[in-house]
Amino acid sequence: MKTLHPSKVYQMLEPGPVALLATAQDGKANVMTMSWHMMVEFEPPRIACIVSGADHSFTALRETGECVIAVPPATMAERVVEIGNCSGREVDKFARFHLDSHPAKLVAAPLIAGCLANIECRVIDDSLVDRFNLFVLEAVHSWFDPALTGVSTLHHRGWGEFALDGEIIRLKSRMR
């Protein structure tokens, strides 16, 4: 065993696929790339996510209390990274990156076409936002694109490095 520098821990604990977080505030939609998220409950589905206070999306999420988490396929990797490398303060990201949006059922933030899943969420706990920028969301409605079943997702490994999910194996489980 060798010592691992603390800055590399994220690369070992990557939480899941890179996602897009869409918000809408005052009629204006925005989208950001998000890697720091995790499930915290299955039913109802609850998701914890970190949105930096420096991000344009932070204010919209905090003020509206709702968003859409979209899971893009790996084929969108370059667009996803570019979305994360600019700010919605200066750019209409939906226009710049040719993202097709559709109205959500229960929240004002838009669904993003071409993604494997779109999860409409409401903030249910913001008690850790001031300290850690951590929002706890509850999924209130979700969508999936059956045409994209089985496609790879993108996983952030830190500092511009990504992995694609791979072979799926099934093992006996007592959990349902």
UniProtKB/TrEMBL annotation:
Domain Flavin reductase like residues, every copy: 12-161
Keyword Flavoprotein assigned: yes
UniProt KW keywords: Flavoprotein
InterPro entries: Flavin_Rdtase-like_dom, Flavoredoxin, Split_barrel_FMN-bd
Cofactor: FMN
Gene Ontology terms for molecular function: FMN binding; oxidoreductase activity, acting on the CH-NH group of donors, NAD or NADP as acceptor
Domain of life: Bacteria
Similarity comment text for this entry: Belongs to the flavoredoxin family.
Name of the protein this chain belongs to: Flavin reductase
